[in-house]
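Bug #77: duplicate submission created two jobs. Keeping one. Sequence:
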Amino acid sequence: MSPDTLLRLVREQLDDDQAGDVVVVDLSGKSSIADYMVIASGQSTRQVGAMTDHLLELFKKNGLKGAKVEGRSRSDWVLVDAGDIVIHLFRPEVREFYKLEKLWSVDLPESVETSSAASIA
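Kept job's structure:
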């Protein structure tokens, strides 16, 4: 499966799961770890865990083997390494703390910026 097809499937699944503030970082030519990094938020540990489970089911259904998962036990920040795509699923507070988008010079979604400004005030 091509990275672009996999990205489309991941985005559709995250949309179905009502993930918030989905950001896609194109890593082509920037990093050898993956072609894309996807960052998304879930409103609770339960939602982050469910999104993780649904992605793993999606990969299995489409014949993608060997996806690795880190952080599933706490579900505050879950990393899913699907080879060509690395997916970070966060609870909003954890995402705001780490600000992965800034590491890759990607604009933060407006709702993340708003929560950052509110926590400073």
